[in-house]
Amino acid sequence: MAAAMAGTSEDFPSEIQDQLSSFDDSLTKVEDTLKPLLMTPLNEVHEKLNPLDCAKVNLVAAYAVNSLFWTYLNVRGENPKEHPVKQELDRIRGYMNRVKEIQEKEKAPKLDKPASKRFVKSALWQAAHAKASAQKDDGASTSQADTSRLQPQPKRQRLNEQNESSKSESGKKEKRTAKCNTGQKNLKIEGTN
């Protein structure tokens, strides 16, 4: 292309010659960049890629062709904004955004279903166990504070009891209240020290 321009360089003003040579250099770079893609059969390219990468290759190729046509319209002095190529470029950009969203969803953290089932099962067991022990302790002769120390307790409940007992002065009796939110209902355990 540079050889074709060299013979007619006298026909153009010097400002345009600089812009045309820059444009020619850019087109040469585009040709060099696209040459490996154009030399390889499309079937081979698609076989080596996963569907998402295949979509990316197709979108880049379509965008490159339409961008070059946009440039061609500009060179001819036509307004590409009024040409259907503008809608085509917008459509391709929309698909590129969809591919980007799909990529972001793949990178997003995923729910570990077995772990979440274990958490829920454990919380339900603790709630049922605490309810059963509370009902059993209502009829027992020992105080609930003594039996609650023997039962397995959720960590939050143990911390609440430790905080309350550390606040009390030695030798004083106090009423202790521990709350445990099990996700189903709040349990309230009261006892005396």
Structure description:
- With 193 residues, the protein is mainly alpha-helical.
- The chain has two domains: 15-107, no CATH class; 113-192, no CATH class.
- 69% of the residues lie in helices and 7% in strands.
- A two-stranded antiparallel ribbon has the order 1-2.
- α4 (51-75) packs antiparallel against α5 (85-107).
- The longest helix has 27 residues, at 113-139.
- The termini are far apart.
Mean pLDDT: 74
| Topology order in helix (H) and strand (E) letters | HHHHHHHHEE
Number of strand elements: 2
Which structural class best describes the helix and strand composition? Answer: mainly alpha
Q: If you compute it from the alpha carbons, what radius of gyration comes out, rounded to the nearest whole angstrom?
A: 37 Å
Largest sheet: 2 strands, antiparallel
Shape: elongated
Number of discrete helical segments: 8
Looking across the biggest beta sheet, what order are the strands in?
1-2
Can you give the helix content as a percent range?
55-70%
Number of domains: 2
Portion of residues in beta strands equals 5-15%
Spans with pLDDT under 50 lasting ≥5 residues? 1-6, 141-148, 169-187
Distance between the termini: 96 Å
